[in-house]
Amino acid sequence: MSGIQGEGQAIGGRSVDSMTGQLLVATPTLKDPNFDRTVVLLVAHEPGGALGVVLNRATEVPVSDVLGDWSRLARDPAVLFEGGPVQPDSAICLARMRHPVRRMKGFHQISGAVGTIDLSVDPERLRESLTGIRVFAGYSGWGAGQLEEEIASGSWFVLDALPGDAFVDRPDDLWPMVLRRQGGMMAAVAHFPSDVALN
């Protein structure tokens, strides 16, 4: 019997659909300082685990200080972002293509026109194809079943991403912005105080 059921894969007798390309939005109950009020784009989600980057933690380090020629393609703010606590010395680069493409040397599609880009490729070769990049130092990672457990315990909302979410000009506003656009009770969470004691 095949382990494939629809688009999901059977894990422990239950079907789990890939959440690659979706947003993990920290709920107010998630108090881990690494993820408090974060919005994470899932770059990969497979039976063995998940990998994502935090979209709303800009640093003050200009991309030009670290990656030179790539800085011309970086969207404002053109700084490095803290992608997460795992391997902070490594870099993951998200890119948005002008048109969705499945195959292009150095580009790995996540969803639609958004994907990761190989930083060893000559940025000039990609200039006409990209609308912008964002560079993340480190990433967020989960072992097999760990993310699903965190979601089930109420730590994360799993929401659809818009193509521009990873490239917003004001990343500090992304958490309330994503929640507000859901409407209803989810929009009300956007106004939840960061410290209930101050309310």
Topology record:
Blueprint: E1 4-5, E2 8-11, E3 14-16, E4 23-26, E5 39-46, E6 49-54, E7 58-62, H1 63-67, E8 79-82, E9 86-97, E10 107-111, E11 114-117, H2 123-126, E12 130-143, H3 146-152, E13 156-159, H4 174-180, H5 184-189
Parallel strand pairs: 8-12
Antiparallel strand pairs: 1-2, 2-3, 4-5, 4-13, 5-6, 6-12, 7-8, 9-11, 9-12, 10-11
What does this structure look like?
There is one protein chain. The chain starts with a strand and ends in a 10-residue tail after the last helix. The longest helix is centred in the C-terminal third of the chain and has 7 residues, at 146-152. The relative contact order is 0.20. The chain has 199 residues and is mainly β. It is built from five helices and 13 strands. 15% of the residues lie in helices and 38% in strands. The strands form two sheets. Strands 4, 5, 6, 7, 8, 9, 10, 11, 12 and 13 form a ten-stranded mixed sheet that branches. Strands 1-2-3 form a three-stranded antiparallel sheet, with no helix packed on it. A hairpin with a 2-residue loop joins strand 2 (8-11) and strand 3.
